[in-house]
Amino acid sequence: MQLRIGSQADEMADEKTAREAALLCGACTKAHDSSPGAVEGHHGSGAERRGRQGYSKWETRKDGQRWEQQSGQDPRAAQDVSHKLIQPTAPPAKYTVSGDRRMEMGVWWIAVVSPLLLWCCEGSSAHQLSVDPPQDLQIVDPGLLGHLYMQWKPPLSLEASHQCPVTYKLKYRNAGDTDWKVIFTKKLKYGDNFDLNRPVEAKVQTLLEGPCANGSEVQSEWTHASFQLPSQGALESRIQDFRCVYYNWEHLRCTWQPGRQAPPGARYELYYWYAGLGDPAQCADYIWTRGKTTGCQLLNLRQAEYLDINICVNGSAEPAQLQPSYFILQIKNLVKPPPPERLALSMSASKEIHVQWSSPEGGTPAECLEYEVQLQGSDGHADAAWSSASTQLETAFVFSQANGTRLSCVRVRGRTNIFCADQGFWSDWTQECFYVPREDGKQLFILVAVVLSFFSVVLVIVFAVHRKKRALAAKKLQPPTGC
Fold first, then answer.
1. Of 106-120, 154-168, 402-416, which gets the smallest average pLDDT?
2. Lowest-confidence pick of 165-169, 173-177, 285-289, 477-481
3. Where exactly are the structural domains of the chain?
4. Residue 401 per-residue DSSP state
5. Integer CA distances (angstroms), 406 to 344, 348, 382, 479, in order
6. Which CATH superfamily is domain 235-333 in?
7. How far is the C-alpha of 128 from the C-alpha of 117, rounded, in Å?
8. Residue 279: alpha-carbon gap to chain centroid
9. Please, is 203 exposed, middle or buried when counting C-beta atoms within 10 Å of its C-beta (0-12, 13-18, 19+)?
């Protein structure tokens, strides 16, 4: 007796497994979908699925051909309508189905259906989860010349929850900036420095993760806020050409020019603040120019060297108001050190010029300096061009002297290196010159010396001969002496 590939019981078991998988997946969707008929709406009923897909029974006829009968049809009608003759791909054979084969097919169904169930349930769950955004985002100005606080309240749905780990994603910037600053925090308040000459904008959202989010991350909508100081005074009344230099890591000198529309009696004042100072402080050492304050010198800023310093230059003038100007300084990037000290030059026998110097004394750390060395070679021209030879951290430099150069000048200057600051100002130059005679000059000197020596010898000989002749002539002219 010839058997079919897979018994009808196996086919029914396979159909039952697929139907159960679909129903389970639909149940996951229904748990997160309040609309009726969610299971069939997403996946369809078992009857509908069988009507769309169907299942096949393959049989081997006595003549070696196989026929396929679609399920859900009358077998007698199938003989007339759906009966297909299919050429076998292998010689006809008798097939038997063992228990191991059924077990393998069951394992295969589990391996295929289980990931599908997991994806279906998790996808449906994650799709439906949501979290409320933070409440009442505010930007608060405590009067610290640009240091603002952004604060908010937790979402309503999570105020009483202590089991869900909540993180807040905060973005903020000055209006006109291209990039946002991004902060992830679990707190409800964050502070930073802003340029108060421009509006400030911020936004925050809730990030929910962990068991409350079924192992995924759920993001809320954004909550927005903005801030801008009230307008005060005419724009042209504010100061211009504001510039600051931190000399020798010891004192900060800031200068400015009065605004174009500032009244003649305008008086400007500088206030500053940095973290740890407490309240803003006013400048105690102003720079005066023709009866007006045009600058300020600040001392004792060591503790603020690697902090932001907020500065406001405000003013008063009767009866008009002056518009304030706000600045954020990082004085480590404004350092101008003194010039290098004890610059010395020497030449070796191989005509190499050795240059050495010392780092300047004072508050500038020696390890924070880099140096630029420039050379000038000339034949006595004072306006000869300088060429950069090196930018280095060491305090020594060696270069070869060209034969065509009679006078070599070396100058060195320093500034803060990249290990201590992002930028800085160059110091003034320290300069020394070194004279080196030419090779042809030496030869000419030797030739002149030889010629002079030769003529000297000749003159001495001529002078000696001349004296000898005069002595002999004088001896002949003397009269003989008698008794």
1. 106-120
2. 477-481
3. 8-128, 135-227, 235-333, 337-439
4. P
5. 18, 16, 13, 67
6. Immunoglobulins (2.60.40.10)
7. 17
8. 32
9. buried
Question: Quick one: tokens of 251?
Answer: 């004192």
The residues near 407 (Cβ < 8 Å, ≥ 6 apart) are 377, 378, 379, 380, 433, 434, 435, 436
Q: Using 50, 70 and 90 to split pLDDT, how confident is the model at 479?
A: low
Predicted local distance difference test score (pLDDT) of residue 105: 62
> Does the 337-439 domain belong in CATH 3.40.50.12780?
no
**Stretch 337-354: mean pLDDT, rounded?**
85
161 Cβ neighbours under 8 A, 6+ residues apart: 212
Residue 122 confidence (pLDDT) above 70:
no
Helix (H, G, I), strand (E, B) or coil at 317: coil
pLDDT of residue 11: 47
Q: Which of 132, 163, 122 is nearest to 31 (CA)?
A: 122
Residue 342 falls in which region: left (phi positive, over 0), alpha (psi -120 to 50) or beta = left
Domains 135-227 and 337-439 share a fold: yes
Instruction: Please report the pLDDT score of residue 256 as a whole number.
Output: 96
Q: What is the pLDDT of residue 43?
A: 39
| C-alpha span between 26 and 40 (Å, rounded) | 7
Give the other-Cβ count within 10 Å of 82's Cβ.
14
| pTM for this model (two decimals) | 0.63
Residue 367 pLDDT: 92
**CA angle centred on 223, ends 217 and 229, rounded to 5°:** 145
- In angstroms, rounded to a whole number, what is the distance separating the alpha carbons of residues 147 and 278? 12
| CB 245, CB 251: distance < 8 Å | no
Q: Which fold has domain 135-227?
A: Immunoglobulin-like (2.60.40)
Q: What is the 3-state secondary structure (H, E, C) of 92-158?
A: CCCCCCCHHHHHHHHHHHHHHHHHHHHHHHHHHHHHHCCCCCCEEEEEECCCCCCEEEEEEECCHHH
pLDDT over threshold 60, residue 20 = no
Dihedral angle over CA of 100, 104, 110, 111, nearest 10: 150
pLDDT of residue 240: 93
Between the two ends of the chain, the Cα-to-Cα distance in Å is 189
